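User: Hey, my collaborator sent me this sequence without any context and asked if I could get a structure. I don't really work with proteins. Can you help?
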Amino acid sequence: MNNIFFESICIKNKLPLHVELHQERMDQTYKRFFNSNPNFQLKNLIDLSKIWDNDFWKCRIIYDQDVIKIEYEKYQIKHPKKIKLVESPEFQYDVKYHDRSIFNSLLNDYKAYDEIIICKNDLLTDTSYSNLAFFDGRDWFTPKQYLLNGVKRKYLLQQEIIHETDISINNLQFFQKISFLNAMRGLSASYEFEFSRKDHSILIQ
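Assistant: No problem. I've predicted the 3D structure and written it out in structure-token form, which is a compact way to encode the shape of the chain:
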């Protein structure tokens, strides 16, 4: 992959959310790939004049050693209905690469499904666009094994709203609801589901 990365920042009521966590992740990426500190701060790049109402907006900042592009768009939440669990032990996406062809390739392989969940040795990690959380009737849990430590996941763990645990194909039956976590969405959008062992898929109710 090319060393081009991005951060997607949620803006609600014209207020950018969790910018400090996005900055922290960008700083770590920058040091890892460019061996220095970035010469820009995300909070200074967001132009709220581009936002004309109080709905959810996505500010997408694409960068390498410099800022390449800043995009703004209204956010439309996805409601997947059928999700394929895909075993891929070698799959890696631990930084927010702008190139998402590895996900697109898998999605193309499973066009009968709305989304995929990458599994490693039967342990669930992430979807192509989000971390995961599962509700057991009392508490919310997120997979201990993940691909990318997302901003919303990190925030909810810090607040002790969700908890880490291993979530496998074998214990999915103990959970009642699923939620998809990323900068743009949280636990307020959750879904009852059934797990089909026949084709290793999650069916949203």
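In plain terms: The longest strand covers residues 5-12. You can pass these tokens on to your collaborator as they are.
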